[in-house]
Amino acid sequence: MTLAIVPNDIVWTRNGDPIRVEKTNPKTGKIILDPDFEKIQDTAQTGIKNGLEPKLKDAYKTSLSDIEGEEKRQEIRDLYAKIESLKNGNTDQRVIKYLENELQYRIVREKFAPENFAVDPITLGI
Predict the structure, then answer these.
(1) 38 and 4 within one domain
(2) Origin, by domain of life (predicted)?
């Protein structure tokens, strides 16, 4: 039995409270949850990336840390270039999709798209 939920995913209780998946047992389907809010915040620091195995989450975080800088517009340009280079490589498509979602979020937040970005600004709402 394959679980779609992996360790360090953030899920919500029926009351709407966030909770972190500490461990999973694919053989029994048992999930151990950790309600420690400090760990939840630390895990969700770069966004909620449910469904990515730990190795893929690390690849995602590494890609984001590679582009960190003072200038937000330059981060957007760098993230777009990173995504384009990863598309030509042998990177898991799920990581690319999460990075594209992060790019969309940053474009809308900063109201700035890279010069060679292929989507109409009206579509993005900027």
Answers:
(1) yes
(2) Bacteria
Instruction: State the average pLDDT over residues 65-73.
Output: 87
Residues present in the chain in total? 126
- Please give the model's pTM, rounded to 2 decimal places: 0.69
Confidence of residue 1 (pLDDT cuts 50, 70, 90): very low
- Do the beta carbons of residue 43 and residue 34 sit within 8 Å? no
